[in-house]
């Protein structure tokens, strides 16, 4: 099944003090690391950036095409929407650029589940992972309606489309430490990621997981 990967790279990175995608883990920038992993799963890779960012700073990534948010400053729902609009494929894997430990087996499993659903999304207890999920182009009408109505919560989208949640026991088969959802917001997070990458250590808990209810 042909799949486009959408990499959300438009966050301001205010707690890092610089663009997060340029930070390095194991000798690669976060965006290089992400693209390298997703190239094994995708027929197309789109990097979604904000209008304050220059496309030229992403031009060295030959495997990917850079597109700019269609509605500036509106958050991740718009980033995913922008990726879907530009995507050449019906099925799309959307991830944030600050997740250095993507698990390819888990992502393949999610893609394989996608026929028959609009969204495939990990869920651990009550917490969802919308920036590590599969979205189809069927989501576009609902997304556009929400955006034009001023509702920018991904949770509102999930109420209007067909969702298949990937539950904890399924995730544990591929990623028992849930390292897939480790995201980098601070310098301390970056140092931890660098340590994990250099020692190949997988901790049992991650205080910096991005949780969405």
3D architecture notes:
- By secondary structure, the protein is of the alpha/beta class.
- The chain has one domain: Spore Coat Polysaccharide Biosynthesis Protein SpsA, Chain A (Alpha-Beta Complex).
- Helices cover 30% and strands 20% of the residues.
- It is built from 7 helices and 10 strands.
- Strands 1, 4, 5, 6, 7, 8, 9 and 10 form an 8-stranded mixed sheet that branches.
- Helix 2 crosses helix 4.
- It starts with a strand and ends in a 14-residue tail after the last helix.
- The C terminus is likely disordered.
| Strand segment tally | 10
Q: How would you name the CATH homologous superfamily? A: Spore Coat Polysaccharide Biosynthesis Protein SpsA, Chain A
Question: What's the mean pLDDT score?
Answer: 88
**N→C terminal distance:** 30 Å
What is shown here, in short?
With 213 residues, this protein is of the alpha/beta class. 30% of the residues lie in helices and 20% in strands.
Per-chain topology:
Layout: E1 3-8, E2 24-25, E3 28-29, H1 30-38, E4 44-49, E5 65-68, H2 76-86, E6 91-96, H3 104-113, E7 119-124, E8 127-128, E9 132-136, H4 140-148, H5 154-158, E10 163-166, H6 168-174, H7 187-199
Parallel strand pairs: 1-4, 1-6, 4-5, 7-10
Antiparallel strand pairs: 2-3, 6-9, 7-8, 7-9
Helix pairs in contact: 2-4
List keywords for this structure.
213 residues; alpha/beta; Spore Coat Polysaccharide Biosynthesis Protein SpsA, Chain A; two-stranded antiparallel sheet; 10 strands
